[in-house]
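Suppose a colleague, Dr. K., hands you the sequence of a protein chain of 635 amino acids and asks what its three-dimensional shape might be. Before reaching for any lab equipment, you can write down a predicted structure in token form. Begin with the sequence itself:
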Amino acid sequence: MSGVPVRKRLLVRLLVASVLIAVCSVAATAWLVVETTTRALREEQGQELAVDTDILSRLSGYAATHPDWTGVGPVVRALARDTGRRIALATPDRAVVADSARPGTPRPPSPAATVDPLRTDTHTEPGAQRAGIDPRVVGPYRLSAADRARLDRFAEARRACLARHGTRTAVVRTPSGRPVLTDESGTVDGGQVPLECADGKLNTPTASERVAQDDLLARTDACLRRHGTAPGTHHLMGLDLTSGANGLIRDGVKPPADPADGRTYRRCADAALRAQLDPYVAPPAALFLGGGGSDEVRFDMSPANKAKVVGVAALVLAVTVAVTAAAAAHFVRPLRALTEAVRQPLDRHVRVPVTTRDETGLLAEAFNDLTARRERLEAQRKAMVSDIAHELRSPLTNIRGWLEVTRDGVVEPDIELLGALHDEALVLQRVIDDLRDLADADAGELRLHREPVGTAELLDQVAAAHRVAAEAAEVDLSTSVAPGTPWLDADPVRMRQALGNVVSNALRHTPSGGTVTLAARPDGDAVAVEVADTGCGIAAEDLPHVFRRFWRAEKSRSRRTGGSGLGLPIVRHLVEAHGGTVGVTSEPGTGSVFTLRLPATVPPPVQEDGPGSRGRSGDGAWTTAEPRSRIRPVR
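The predicted structure, expressed as tokens, is then:
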């Protein structure tokens, strides 16, 4: 394989392809692992953030409805069981309030959040007021049971009144216990209400709410005075007792035109509300959560993990290269053997061993079959050359011998001598003509002039041409055409040649007193022409070789018992050129039957030219007003 460049060798290409595949596989796997891990971390962090927010919200709700953390322990432990997180509450000076872990378990280094219902994160706490107060903190605005029952009756009456006017509403209870009517667009109490329904009972503050509002107003005025701002016309933002989950404060009065005064009023109102609600909520506490993470997700492998990845990748590459090299060597070995066998001289006919049953094994088998066929063809070629030389040598030797003795004056050139020389020349001509016909057939240049041929006429012409030879051999030559036998679509000259070769062969192998019969019969869409004799027959082992060139059952090749060995091969080529088939059956000592199956056709229309005219009938027989005077000679 030294003549093949290294880069073009199958082994090298397989190795390169395997390395590329392995590298791509490792890279794709690594990328997939990193992406999957990163995505899983982000999803897990998102779930943890949602859990953390829920924990903070539930603890803020507890603080909004309890003045201290006395009973928060069971709540913390229940939350820890539900979420699977470690939860700890501590005072600002890190004194433990409640912890779901065992005593002595170290807390996280920093708190995750601060639980203060009066100062919530409005971005993470849904429903928190703009001022950062948990909406569940109601303090002195919580209604008594009696007030709630009374307001419930007013709310139901208001809902029924609105329903009569085509407005469907529902009753929603605020954290303070006050009922509020809402529809699809929100609270309807603050909007346009039909006069019949606007009785003022539902939205009027109760006595306890009025007391709380007055206290809030006094705290706000005191704050404004401390900041040097007179309350003046009452501009304090009033309480929204019907805002549901949106808090207790809303803009009720237009603030001062001066932005600085407006900010002062806002700060005082917020501070007054927190001071009013502070006695009703638990004090702020630091929330510690076990397993908390940062907002930024990073995938950073340690040196040990990097070494593992590199080692595994190198191992995969090494195994891939080794397996590919072994497989390539296994695949290339038969190809190299084939290459070496092809390079051997043609006369050696080298075979290669078949070691596998894959594509290379099948290729080796095909090569061996080709070598065997080439060896057989070479042997046949040599035998054919020898046979041709033998067939041409005998007549040429005879002609040369007679010419030499005539030249030397030993024999006078009389009529008999010239006749003998003519016969030997005819033998040479026949052999040369037969070889030419076979050469034309092999080259596909055997020209046919096909036309409708009467079957009976064809058989009669062939029989008439061999009548003299049959009489000389004392053999009865006859014809027989079955009724309804169609005409042949054939070249009449070539068909007479083919049938003539078969009849000649039958006459040579039929003893005196025997018979040779030419018969024709319909055979489906074809015509079967049979030449049967009562000769010596052909042995079963010789039947496959009958139509082979220069083959003769008589190995001595005596001219008394056989011809040149080209007649029957020419018959096979002529019949196949017509699209037909030829076969033989024989029984030694009984005789042989050669069958030519030829395509049929319809006869041409009969022409009537008057008395004495001649035409053909449908079965191929001649119809004439006069006796048939002669038959066309065989070529």
